[in-house]
Amino acid sequence: MTSTSCHYFIVTKKTRGVLTVNPGRLCYMTTQKYNAHQETTKHPKTLSVYAFDSLAGIPKDVEISCLEELSLEDAQLLLAVPDDTERLSMFSDQPAFQAARSLSVGTAVTVKEDGKNLRGVIRYIGKRTEPRYPNPISGTYYGVELQGSDRGKAKNVGMYSHETLFQYEKDCGILVPISRIKPVVPSSLSPSRTEPSGAYSDPQTDELSPGDRVIYFNGPKCRSGMVVEVQQQNGNQMVWISTDTDEMGRQGGEICIPLEMVSKGDIPGDITEPERIDFDTTPPEDYTNLDVNSMVEVILGKRNSYGIIRWIGKLPGREETMAGLELEEDLGVSDGTFKGTRFFRCPNKRALFVKLSSCHPDSRFHGSADDHKQEMSQPDYTEMDEDVSGENLEVVPPISAEQIDHLLIGRMKGIQGHCNSCYMDAALFSLFSCSSALDSMLFKTTTSQDAPIQKTLLRDIVIPLRSKGFVECRHVMKLRQLLQKHGYSRSFTTEEKDPEEFLIVVMHHILALEPLLKLSAAGKVQESYCYQIFLDQNHSLVLPTVQQLLEHSFHNAGLKLAEVPSCLILQMPRFGKKFKMFDKIIPSLELDITDLLSEGPQQCIMCGHLAVEECADCFKDPTFNLTGFKIFCHKCSTQVHSHPKRRSHQPTRLEIPKGYMGRSIPQTLIRDRLELYAVLCIETSHYVSFVKYGPNSHDWIFFDSMADRQGEMDGFNIPEVHLCPEVGTYLEMSPAELANQVPRDMKGVAKRLFCDAYMYLYQSTSMCLYR
């Protein structure tokens, strides 16, 4: 199937049917099937199309009225946009879309990166990777080299491996989709301003950002205010401004003005403060209950923004009680200072000073703390909630490396913790945020009694996590309440449990999922959902890798794998939550399980030929430098055991698969490997997780469902996800270098991964639904 042998579409409206497709999703249909469908159906109402980034091989019937056909070029441009909503918005704004698609190499542009507009020049237009099976095409990206004062601000170097796509100076290359790029168009000034008619101001000084002080023209008068947001509306650039005074003379308010009517600066003699944004609202009844560290929301532009009150008091020259907020996004104007005086500390562009009366309690918590606690203590579902038989749910793929930054990084991201839920939060985040290894359990047929639990897991947790990057604590509590109601434990809503206990309840008792692990021992097959690593007291390991731990444990127990598992869940050797057998464990990014399989030929570790013998004594011999199971061909076994210290060893014969005896096997025998995708860690009874989201050793994120708390009495927790590339630095060290690292001195959160690992999650990449 080639790119030109297909018809491409974008879904513009919500579809119906068992398998729904989100608006904004791209689809395709082979030209052969499209033509046959047109010939055999006189008035077709639907098309059987394949959705990009959906389950491979499953066509979906979509109403033609919901589809808009695309050219091959437009489909490639839109496919690079990572979010369905953002993609549809880009396509719907045709003037902006056509302007962006006309860009060429050498064009000066602005790139949106972390909420900021960076200036650069297009150096490359094309695909980032080859199409991923079964998709016939891949997305078209723009490679931009940053210029001027924005040089060195590139942050996604390494994420796309785009060094080979175009040349750029260090930390100046960015690869972005069409939705994050636009041409530099200098803003013309109104003739009523002080500049000569027809003149253009320097675009470097006229580029507006939230928080900039501006003057604007609304009718004959010139007024002042602060930029809240710059956006596209019907092909025109519009500026939302928080006004100092409106046309009625009232203080505070907002207005939307075309960009050409706005200029940076202040009216001479203007007494308004440059770091202020006001709202003329009727004081809400509940704002008097707000205090320092309260979680609040304010309206900026046409959107709600969220933050935490870090300071309350009076500002110089102001009579009203003001609140200093630390926002969750870079929508503020300082780092906690006002007119040169520091009132609190926070990251730059996160601080905003507003009237306290403009703040409302964070609606994401559904009311006051007391109401929220009462709600969380009582079941918040109804019998109607349990009747989900007719509900259609869109299949959402795991979060990709391209989506990590804008979808999953920051405060109030991930899964919100509440009331000893960290074990469940960390487990669910690890399993479903960036991997599809266990997605089959979300769609497996189950009993009518347990169907609500499965639907809650999919609809209220997995889908919001992957589509919005955030799951409210009430949804996790609902899952816990259902587990408790259906009799699986009386304490699911109150007590902390072990992750494996929760996983076994869901996979075995509720979904009756086929065991993930099939172990062969003495000719008999045992089944399990996870594997606890045990070691004998005479082991010689000091700073082990996960590979070594698994091999030693299998060897001591006389175990083999009966088949390659789709997902392997390993529990580290420790006794309870406090005692650890090893101070550090080195994560193995890949597990080579070839020699752990009970069937199939095995290679001699010395020469690579067909192995016929295994030696347990060599495996325990610390002087034998080669790692892994000690399996040899006849010739190498004779040579190894001719050493005086090994003459007493007693190697055993291996079972040779039929047809292989007397034959040599190729040196390039395909090795069976599993890929690490998540690690759960525990310290002082609190679980966190590390998730590997990309192919590089530095591609890690860290998740804590209780990273910050509003207060011990409220019980509101602030989850947080952040990048932790420092992990890669330690993974690239030699064992000797790593052994010399003092845990408390390790950078960032790396110490928790190496020293507090509780459970490792591996997946077979060939069995995942999405890759």
TrEMBL record:
EC number from the UniProt entry: 3.4.19.12
Chain positions covered by the region annotation Disordered: 185-211
Keywords of the record: Cell membrane, Cell projection, Cytoplasm, Hydrolase, Immunity, Innate immunity, Membrane, Metal-binding, Microtubule, Phosphoprotein, Protease, Thiol protease, Ubl conjugation, Ubl conjugation pathway, Wnt signaling pathway, Zinc
Signal peptide coordinates: none
Catalytically driven reaction(s): Thiol-dependent hydrolysis of ester, thioester, amide, peptide and isopeptide bonds formed by the C-terminal Gly of ubiquitin (a 76-residue protein attached to proteins as an intracellular targeting signal)
Record-annotated USP domain positions: 413-765
One BP term from GO: protein deubiquitination
PROSITE patterns tied to this protein: CAP_GLY_2, USP_1, USP_3
Enzyme class: hydrolase
Record's GO cellular component terms: centrosome; microtubule; perinuclear region of cytoplasm; plasma membrane; spindle
Localization per record: Cell membrane; Cytoplasm, Cytoskeleton, Cilium basal body; Cytoplasm, Cytoskeleton, Microtubule organizing center, Centrosome; Cytoplasm, Cytoskeleton, Spindle
Molecular function per GO: cysteine-type deubiquitinase activity; metal ion binding
Domain CAP-Gly: 313-355
Membrane topology term: Peripheral membrane protein
Family: Belongs to the peptidase C19 family.
Subunit structure: Interacts (via CAP-Gly domain) with IKBKG/NEMO (via proline-rich C-terminal region). Interacts with TRAF2 and TRIP. Interacts with PLK1, DVL1, DVL3, MAVS, TBK1, IKKE and RIGI. Interacts (via CAP-Gly domain) with microtubules. Interacts with HDAC6 and BCL3. Interacts with MAP3K7. Identified in a complex with TRAF6 and SQSTM1. Interacts with OPTN and SQSTM1. Interacts with CEP350. Interacts with RNF31; the interaction is indirect and is mediated via SPATA2.
Record's protein name: Ubiquitin carboxyl-terminal hydrolase CYLD
